Every structure is written in structure tokens, then in C-alpha cells.
Amino acid sequence: MIDWYIEGIAFGNCNCAYGCPCQFEADPTHGNCRGFETLRIDKGHFADIDLSGLKIAMLYAWPGLISEGKGELQAIIDEQANDAQRHALETVLHGKETAEAATHWWVFHAMSDTVHPTLYKPIEFEINMEHVTARVEIPGVLSSTGEPIRPDHTSDAVHRAQIVIPNGIEYEVAEMGSASTKTNTDSAIKLDLVNSYGQFNELRHSGTGIVH
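The structure corresponding to this sequence follows.
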């Protein structure tokens, strides 16, 4: 395999309730899975191609459990990427040059019957892990915001909770939040999520899986 490594900060939003049962190999809240993720690559390479400073996003949907397949996905790559960087990132996001089931990108691609054409767009992505806030804007594709979970009985307090998966294929520790996402006309996968599961995490992936 081609040697590659990607490290950065990720934010995602899906249609599950807070906690997302899929993280625990349980059935999704509504019986199906729809969502997206975005990543700021702070450090990365694909062979000798530098990927640092670029951003990516992924839209996905499955009619039932992810493990049952029949899904669809669409990658969005930072329009600032040159041709070599675009090819490298699409390769990684489509699970290629990756050991079997080593990353969630490999699994998502393997469980998708439909892979929509990759989009190349400007990706505005702001995230504060400490405050559990995020904002994503991809013109023509989607708008998303993330914030802490707030108990119903007060608007001032926040509820902090984390998921720890030492042997996972996506992250080791994720902060849970509340997020809302709305897709636009250029998106092949439609989302209209309001105050559902938000995920904030560090990501360190290589072709053999999570780098600890």
C-alpha cells in the first residue's frame, strides 16, 4: 500500500439521538443512518504529497444498519487542493490504499452501493474542542452548527459527556454535542437535522488504522 497519514480535528452530525447507538454496535435511533463529517487536516501526507492545511467532508446515508449496506456517500474536497492532492484525498476517503476494515472510511465505502461524484468546494470550518462548538459552511452543499448539550430545565448549564473507544476504527475519545445540519441543492444526499447527535474528536488515521 501507499504510505499515508492524516491527523486533524473532526466534527460530525447524524440523525441519531445523543450518544448515537451506532457507536455501541446497536441499532440507530430511527432505524436508519444519515449524516456528515468534516475534518481539518493539521498534518498529513500521501506518499510524498503534502495534505496539511486542507479540509474534507463526507456525506452518507444508509436505509438501515450500516453493516447491512445499501448505502450512499459523497466526498467533498477542499477546492484549494491541487490535482495530486485531490486524487490522494479521494483515494483515502473511498477506503483505498487501506487495510480491510481499518478505518471508518473503508467501512463506509464498502457498505455503500452508490458513490456519488466527488465535489470540490471551499470549506469553511471553525471548531473549538474546549467549548464544544463548531460551524461548517460549504457553499451550495450544506450549513452546520454544533454546540454543547444543554439540559431541558436550563439554558445556562451544559452537559459534558464523552465516548471512549480504545480499539475503535474512527477515534479513541469523542466529545458529544448537539448539532444541526441542512443540505442544499448541490448535495446528492439530503439532510435536515435539528439538535441531533454531534461529535467532536481528534482523528489520526493511516492505511493500517488509528495511530495511537
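The mean pLDDT is 96.
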